[in-house]
Each structure stands twice: as structure tokens, then as C-alpha cells.
């Protein structure tokens, strides 16, 4: 009788690393979500709650981004560049939050959202290039910034027109009204 031996060549993997990576990933999205919600609601007026949610969102996004970049992706940044990385990450988070919050609440606040979405996308793109340390010539940077500004202005105009022609029923009944008590 021949004995069959099963050899498990793969070592048992620890769940700590993939769970940690997942939590850092989720933290970026939760942070961006908090930022999006607070920025949209700050358009209705500045209040302590929305400012607090914005700050927590920025901190979540920033901490998660730092863990993702420095721990998991092993990105090396010189000490002098850490502050730049933090600033660019915050501007990126704010840009993404502006765009996603403006899209989510367009029917609630079409005029405000008409500015939030394109400005957020433009800020986010420039901040992303800077955070990722993309190298462009001065001439290319001028082209990029000029193009982004042109697209932002054109998109503000287009969204403003769309906001003005939305049916009244959609604006009052189809939106996400946080003040409504009917759930």
C-alpha cells in the first residue's frame, strides 16, 4: 500500500495585512463621504456639526492616505515633502468631496452644485498631479491649468443651464430632503 502525502506548499497567510489594507481603503472612502456631505450642507450655512464632520472626514482621508502610501505602497517622501503631500492630499479630498457631494445633491441645490462639481473636479485633478509628483514642463502646466479652468467654466455654465430647466416637481419632490420626516 502506497501512502499519499499531501504537501501544503503555501504558508498560512495572516489576515492582518489584507484587513489593514482594507481598513485604510475604507477610511479614504469614509473620509471622502464625510467631506462630500459636509461641503454640500455648508452651502446652506456654516454650522458646528457640518464643520466637525468636514474636519473628521479630512482626518480620516488623510490618515488613510498616509497609511496606504507610506506603509503599504512604501512610497518614500523626503521630510521636506511631507507637508506638501499632506496639503495636496487634503485639497484632493476636498475636490473629490465637492464633486461627489454636488452630484448627489444637484436636484436639491442646483445653483450651488453647478459650482461645486466642476471646481471640485478641477481642484482634485491638479491636486492629484501634484500629490503624485507628476513632472511637467512649465508650458505643459500652463496648458493643463488653462484647460482645467476652461472646462470648469464651461461645466459651470452647462450645469447652471441644466439646473434652471429641471422640472419643479423634481426639485421639490425628487431630491434628497434631509429636513423631511417621511421615511
Distance linking N and C termini = 70 Å
- Say how many strands there are: 0
Largest sheet: none
Average pLDDT for all residues? 85
The value of Rg in angstroms is: 22 Å
Topology pattern, helix = H, strand = E = HHHHHH
- Strand residues, percent: under 5%
Please indicate the count of domains: 1
Helix tally equals 6
Find the structural class using helix and strand composition: mainly alpha
Helix content: over 70%
Low-confidence stretches: none
User: Which descriptor suits the 3D outline?
Assistant: globular
Brief rundown of the structure:
The protein has helices at 16-42, 48-72, 79-104, 110-131, 138-165, 168-174.
Describe this structure in words.
With 183 residues, the protein is mainly alpha-helical. The protein has one domain (18-174). Helix content is 74%, strand content 0%. The chain contains 6 helices and no strands. It has helices spanning 16-42, 48-72, 79-104, 110-131, 138-165, 168-174. Helix 2 packs across helix 3 and helix 4 (110-131) runs antiparallel to helix 5 (138-165). The longest helix has 28 residues, at 138-165. It is globular.
Amino acid at each position: 500500500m502506497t501512502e499519499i502525502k499531501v504537501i501544503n506548499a503555501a504558508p498560512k497567510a495572516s489576515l492582518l495585512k489584507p484587513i489593514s489594507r482594507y481598513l485604510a481603503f475604507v477610511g479614504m472612502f469614509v473620509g471622502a463621504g464625510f467631506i462630500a456631505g459636509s461641503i454640500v450642507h455648508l452651502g446652506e450655512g456654516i454650522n458646528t456639526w457640518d464643520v466637525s464632520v468636514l474636519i473628521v472626514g479630512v482626518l480620516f482621508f488623510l490618515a488613510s492616505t498616509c497609511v496606504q502610501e507610506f506603509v503599504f505602497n512604501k512610497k518614500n517622501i523626503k521630510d521636506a515633502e511631507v507637508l506638501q503631500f499632506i496639503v495636496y492630499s487634503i485639497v484632493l479630498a476636498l475636490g473629490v468631496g465637492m464633486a461627489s457631494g454636488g452630484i448627489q445633491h444637484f436636484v436639491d441645490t442646483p445653483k450651488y452644485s453647478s459650482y461645486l462639481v466642476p471646481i471640485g473636479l478641477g481642484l482634485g485633478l491638479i491636486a492629484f498631479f501634484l500629490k503624485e509628483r507628476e513632472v511637467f514642463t512649465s508650458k505643459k502646466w500652463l496648458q493643463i491649468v488653462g484647460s482645467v479652468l476652461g472646462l470648469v467654466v464651461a461645466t459651470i455654465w452647462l450645469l447652471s443651464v441644466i439646473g434652471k430647466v429641471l422640472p419643479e416637481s423634481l426639485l421639490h419632490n425628487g431630491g434628497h430632503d434631509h429636513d423631511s420626516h417621511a421615511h
